[in-house]
Amino acid sequence: MKTIVTVQDAVTAFADFMEPTDAELDAIEQEMPVILADVDLLDAQIITLDRIPTELDNRRLRRARRRALAARIALANLTAAATVPGGAA
Questions:
Q1: What separation, in Å, do the N-terminal and C-terminal C-alpha atoms of the chain show?
Q2: 71 near 41, Cβ under 8 Å?
Q3: pLDDT tens for each residue of the chain, 89 residues long
Q4: What is the DSSP letter of 54?
Q5: Distance (Å, rounded) from C-alpha 26 to C-alpha 78?
Q6: How many CB atoms lie within 10 A of CB 53?
Q7: How far apart are CA 12 and CA 8, in angstroms?
Q8: SS3 of 58, please?
Q9: What is the rounded CA–CA span in Å between residue 85 and residue 56?
Q10: Which residues of 38-51 are buried (b: 16+ CB within 10 A; e: fewer)?
Q11: How far apart are alpha carbons 7 and 33 in whole angstroms?
């Protein structure tokens, strides 16, 4: 009996599409403040999972939510300004 071997992995292992493009890396870099703010928010939420939140925990959560929202607003304003080069129509 013959064994059937696929060569798909050998063919595509080093293909160009396996690595992120420069544009994708730039987009990730631009979204990094939002990603980090979301990580901080998740950290604050995880801390309060197994206990009743204290006043300090509540403040930490509020601050993390405000930072995440501010980062999202800044990214939205940045992308909106980049898509409309001439300003409002």
A1: 71
A2: no
A3: 676 666 555 555 566 667 888 999 999 999 999 999 999 999 999 999 999 999 999 999 999 999 999 999 999 998 888 776 665 55
A4: -
A5: 14
A6: 15
A7: 6
A8: helix
A9: 44
A10: bebbeebeeeeeee
A11: 41
Cα gap 19→32, rounded to integer Å: 19
Residue the block writes with tokens 């509020």:
62
CB 32 within 8 A of CB 25: no
The residue type at 74:
A
SS3 content of the chain, % helix, strand, coil (to 5): 70, 0, 30
Residue with tokens 């690595």: 19
Taking the CB of residue 64, how many other CB atoms lie within 10 A of it? 19
Give the DSSP letter of residue 20: P
- The answer to whether the CB of 34 falls within 8 A of the CB of 72 is yes
